[in-house]
């Protein structure tokens, strides 16, 4: 009986654990942003963007990484409700980790729940102000909400950091456009 109690307590211990601080990635991201601005072509820029993702998607610890990876796998298989649940757990555990918010916003964007995506993108950007995908995602979310000028302003901010972003095509939309 006592052994079962201790096994139960030990298995639940991670639920009570505190997430360590997210790693400081600002210097690495700044260096990659400088490099992508000097990229000779879109292919080279994609490689650098991929390197940025290795930093953004590096969770603070193994538990957070498992939650992030689970949510991303669920999103990739279009289990969007499961993805949001995984990202909810990640955010509850690591409320200062920007990627949890960015990924939950992405899942909600795919579900076309733009009102849910927007505050998560704002939080991701508050935590990582140079998170280019969160900027671009916020721009796309605002555009899908019909706020084309506001969305284009966000995309311009992202393109100022990475001029090779595919989202730059949205800068050609007319503010009154319905072709979203």
Automatic annotation (TrEMBL):
Record-level Gene Ontology MF annotations: transferase activity
Native organism: Jannaschia donghaensis
Record keywords, A-Z: Signal, TPR repeat, Transferase
Keyword Cell membrane among record annotations: no
Renumbered ranges of TPR repeats: 98-131
InterPro entries linked: TPR-like_helical_dom_sf, TPR_rpt
Name of the protein in question: Putative O-linked N-acetylglucosamine transferase, SPINDLY family
Domain of life: Bacteria
Keyword Ribonucleoprotein: no
SUPFAM superfamilies membership: TPR-like (SSF48452)
Signal peptide segment: 1-17
Transmembrane segments: none
Highest classification ranks of the organism: Bacteria, Pseudomonadati, Pseudomonadota, Alphaproteobacteria, Rhodobacterales
